[in-house]
């Protein structure tokens, strides 16, 4: 379930919080929602005060979220979403109380409260959920990119043998670090491997399952129904939560990681 996936807990800096408060000020002062357009007095100072209130509420929210995070073993997309919703409610109610006091309105004016919450949700959730999506995909790219620095020293002396299932005696022996990836084409497997500074290929009558049995190593990973890759040889990775595209040097071909294999791939990160 996507809401249970790991999400980076990142405290907003005071500059980011000040920026959000400034955006609130601009929206109030320039667009003048909540009946502010009908105000006869200069609303510059109260709009600035509303921005300051937003800034202070963000500080309190961040402090509380930090304490909650310390008690959790994993911060998830669901946690981030709930924290975002609570922040929006916090800011909406806080600004409602301020403007009710400014206009001399009753704090029991639920119509005005609903109006504040409605517009705060419309503006706030749109911005923050986009931010959550961007941050989550950045996390996935960062974690996947961390594999690019993975050392293969522990497998330097390991050699593997890939044997044809139909032709007796046809086999390819090579250091495991020279194996790049394999692609299933109809009933055959095309193995791509390093040979000096170039990429060589050899075709075998094999299935993906049979190849995986011959290469029982964690870094040999099935990333697609038609592809198996050596994670140690990844030199570039692009993509998001829907899938990745991998490059394994010195091969020029891009190897896809289908969405159904992303979760399994993350267990190796």
TrEMBL record:
GO biological process: proteolysis
Keywords for the protein's UniProt record, in alphabetical order: Hydrolase, Membrane, Protease, Transmembrane, Transmembrane helix
Gene Ontology terms for molecular function: DNA binding; peptidase activity; phosphorelay response regulator activity
Transmembrane segments: 18-37, 43-65, 77-104, 116-137
Domain HTH LytTR-type: 174-269
UniProt keyword Transmembrane helix, yes or no: yes
InterPro entries named among the record's database cross-references: LytR-like, LytTR_DNA-bd_dom
PANTHER family: STAGE 0 SPORULATION PROTEIN A HOMOLOG, TRANSCRIPTIONAL REGULATOR-RELATED
Protein name: Membrane protein implicated in regulation of membrane protease activity
Organism, as annotated: Alloprevotella rava
């Amino acid at each position: 379930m996507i809401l249970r996936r790991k999400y980076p807990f990142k405290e907003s800096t005071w500059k980011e919080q000040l920026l959000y408060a400034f955006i609130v000020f601009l929206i109030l002062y320039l667009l003048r929602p909540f009946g502010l357009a009908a105000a006869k007095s200069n609303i510059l100072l109260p709009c600035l005060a509303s921005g300051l209130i937003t800034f202070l509420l963000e500080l309190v929210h961040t402090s509380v979220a930090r304490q909650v995070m310390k008690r959790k073993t994993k911060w998830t997309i669901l946690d981030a979403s709930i924290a975002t919703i609570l922040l929006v409610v916090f800011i909406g109610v806080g600004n409602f109380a301020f403007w009710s006091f400014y206009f001399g309105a009753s704090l029991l004016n639920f119509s005005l409260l609903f109006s504040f919450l409605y517009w705060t949700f419309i503006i706030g959730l749109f911005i923050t959920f986009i931010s959550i999506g961007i941050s989550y995909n950045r996390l996935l790219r960062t974690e996947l990119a961390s594999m690019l620095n993975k050392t293969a020293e522990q497998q330097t002396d390991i050699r593997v043998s890939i044997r044809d299932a139909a032709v007796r005696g046809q086999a390819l022996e090579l250091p495991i670090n020279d194996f790049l990836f394999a692609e299933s084409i109809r009933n055959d497997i095309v193995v791509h491997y390093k040979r000096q500074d170039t990429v060589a290929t050899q075709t075998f009558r094999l299935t993906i399952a049979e190849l995986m049995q011959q290469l029982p190593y964690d870094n040999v990973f099935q990333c697609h129904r038609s592809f198996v890759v050596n994670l140690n040889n990844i030199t570039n990775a692009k993509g998001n939560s829907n899938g990745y595209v991998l490059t394994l040097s010195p091969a020029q071909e891009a190897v896809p990681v289908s969405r159904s294999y992303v979760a399994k791939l993350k267990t190796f990160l």
